[in-house]
Sequence to fold (199 residues):
Amino acid sequence: EGRLAWYRDEHAERIREIRSLQRKGLTLAAIKRALDGELGRTDLELAAAVAAARGETEPERLLTLEAFSAEAGVPASLIQAVEREGIRLGVSVDGETRYSSADIRTVRAALRLLEFGLPVGELLALARETNEAMVRLAERAVELFDAHVREPIRDTAATEDEAAAQLVAAFDTLLPAVTDLVATHFRRVLLAAAEERLS
Fold:
């Protein structure tokens, strides 16, 4: 009321484009960059692959804090206390934190540690140290991917479609490889430390 607005076909097309990008799991910030021409097709497809890997393309599978708390069997206040310590659970979807089945498994694993008598304060400190180390490691891994995979593909691909396909394929191959590498190495280091302590 009190204002008159006219909408043309290009407005409807822009809304369709925004909805399409949201279905691919892109954040509103990434969508804005795409619509402003700051994010090309190649990087859009890579951003969509990252969102899919994080589980953000199916928002109906993501839980609110209350639903997560009920399903994990942990009070919401405890989850918030853990997050205040810098240990991030969940993913941000348009400014709201949502939780996945992987977060439920993580919380249940932490509860098993507590059941064996490990002190919550020391577990939180260990989790904080691990998180800080993992953030540094992840940032370095992304830098390496950018410099040695993303940029060369973007520079040598014949078309943006070809570059996008190659980048998504590289990401889909490298993510599980790096995840397995880190998990396997940590397990070996942990077992070696335990064996040394027992010797």
Summary: The mean pLDDT is 86.
